[in-house]
Amino acid sequence: MSVPWLLAAMLLGAGNKSCTGERVEAVVHDATTRRDWLRMRDCAHPEWPAHLQLDPIGQRLKEPLGYAEAKALPAPIVVKAGMPVTVWQDGTAHIRLSGVAAQSAPIGGEIVVRLGSGWLLRGVVRGPGSVELSAPAGWSRP
Predict the structure, then answer these.
(1) Closest Cα partner for 79 from 28, 131, 27, 115?
(2) Which one of 71, 97, 122 terminates a domain?
(3) What pLDDT is attached to residue 63?
(4) 58 and 93 assigned to the same domain
(5) What is the Cα–Cα distance from 86 to 63, expressed in whole angstroms?
(6) Which residues form the Flagella basal body P-ring formation protein FlgA SAF domain (predicted)?
(7) pLDDT of 59 higher than 80
(8) Which domain CATH number covers 97?
(9) Same domain, 37 and 13
């Protein structure tokens, strides 16, 4: 066995009797999704490629937040650009239309929705995939 291979095997835990199953090689942070991924290595087969696994601990707060800090956190995005949404309005007439979100927004955010016919509507996000038509109705042609 060559020296580089032996060194790599030692660093990866080959021959390490205390390592069973898989071990974490590194934690990779994805800034886009704001999640941490664990690069896992099989201890029984260190020559196999490592794989990524979502870090369940990284999804929870590490320490409690105060009221002011919690209020300062950005609202989670519930409608993403390109996502199918239902545009609705309840009043004297009930309107339900299907479209595609042209923008991303949290609950309460205003977005533009493109209908299949090409018309553009402006509305307020009320939940995941749910957009209330703004009053007055913001109909426009592209």
Answers:
(1) 131
(2) 71
(3) 63
(4) no
(5) 37
(6) 70-132
(7) no
(8) 2.30.30.760
(9) yes
Of the candidates 7, 8, 15, 2, the one whose C-alpha atom is nearest the C-alpha of residue 43 is 15
Rounded Cα gap, residues 95 and 79, in angstroms: 20
Residue 140, in any domain of the structure: no
Q: Are residues 89 and 56 in the same domain?
A: no
Amino acid at 132: E
d(CA 42, CA 17): 13
Tens digit of pLDDT for each residue in 93-110?
888 999 999 999 999 999
Question: Per-residue DSSP letters for 32-60?
Answer: TTTEEEEEEEESS-TTSPPEEEE-SGGGS
Residue 101 contacts residue 85 (beta carbons within 8 Å): yes
User: Which DSSP category does 93 fall into?
Assistant: S
Which residue in 29, 31, 27, 59 sits closest to 40, CA to CA?
27
Report the domain count for the chain: 2
Please give the pLDDT value at position 58: 54
**Pair 34, 63 in one domain:** yes
Tell whether the model's pLDDT for residue 28 goes beyond 80: yes
| Segments forming the whole domain that contains residue 24 | 3-71
